[in-house]
Amino acid sequence: MEQLIGQIAIFPWYWEPRGWAKCDGRLLSITQNCALFALIGTEFGGDGINYFALPKMPPIKKENAGGGDLAYYIALQGYFPARD
Hints:
Layout: E1 8-11, E2 20-22, E3 27-29, H1 34-40, E4 51-53, E5 71-75
Antiparallel strand pairs: 1-5, 2-5, 3-4
């Protein structure tokens, strides 16, 4: 099943899978991410003309486990969610 654009998921690694971006507050180009911008706009920052920001969500500390922390990621690609 393909993800919805804007869907947020927790992955047990600290690298970005293709089509996803870490929820680290970074600015993205509106022209390169039109669908995601249509969904979240400037809710998390950006100028709304050239850039918008992703949500900033801190990693979840894993206790008693090696390999680092859990991180939140947002889907940049996938299905555009339908509205009723």
